[in-house]
Amino acid sequence: KSEADQDSLVIDKTSFINNSAYQGYDGNGADIMINAFGKAYLTNVLFSANIGGGVSALHWSAQQNKSAIRIINSTFAKNSGNESFGASTMTLEGYGTQEIINTIVWHNVIYGYPVINGGASISYSNIEGGSAGTGNLDTDPGFVDLANGDLHLSDSSPSLGAGTLEGAPTTDIE
Predict the structure, then answer these.
(1) Which residues pair with 112 in a beta bridge?
(2) 117-126 burial, b if ≥16 CB within 10 A, otherwise e?
(3) Contact present, 98 and 88 (Cβ < 8 Å)
(4) Closest Cα to residue 72, out of 149, 166, 174?
(5) Are the beta carbons of 116 and 92 closer than 8 angstroms?
(6) Which of 109, 62, 104 is nearest to 83 (CA)?
(7) Rounded to whole angstroms, how far apart are CA atoms 122 and 98?
């Protein structure tokens, strides 16, 4: 497709909770699987308690250099993949720009792959197991009640105030 034909997917203030997805013989499933020529923007999105094959929450496979995905002010928690296939919480692969900003990725069950598989630029995020990039944390985010699905941040959360306001939405998912 030409640049003019590229579409944009915008997901804002949306929750994906308690879903399951499997695709094909290799078990590659995800709540969102995008083979993209365009752009995707995920803002204030919650992925929680989802089960997938090789990818439990988000799989982005960009097909050209002008493709882009931007995930900002989002949370990925309590997702799990299938041990038989190996699993990550999200896979961002292919061409183009891949950004994760002000995002929490914690308490997911993975097998044989990093929690975020691919070469995304990650900043001001709290990633279990750590991630290179400006302002990133590797500290339990202190959800109010993880066991019962309350993924609001507690008053003592190290993630409160740890993000950047640059490019962030004016309101949070509340």
Answers:
(1) 87
(2) bbebebbbbb
(3) no
(4) 166
(5) yes
(6) 109
(7) 9
| Dist CA 106 CA 120 (whole Å) | 17
The b/e string for 25-54 (b: 16+ C-beta within 10 A; e otherwise) is eebbbbbbbbebbbbbbbbbbbbbbbbbbb
Amino acid at 114: P
Q: What is the pLDDT of residues 93-148, one digit of tens each?
A: 778 889 999 999 999 887 777 777 788 999 999 999 999 999 999 999 999 999 99
Q: What is the pTM of this model?
A: 0.88
Residue 110: closest CA among 86, 137, 74, 84: 86
Distance CA 142, CA 153 (A): 6
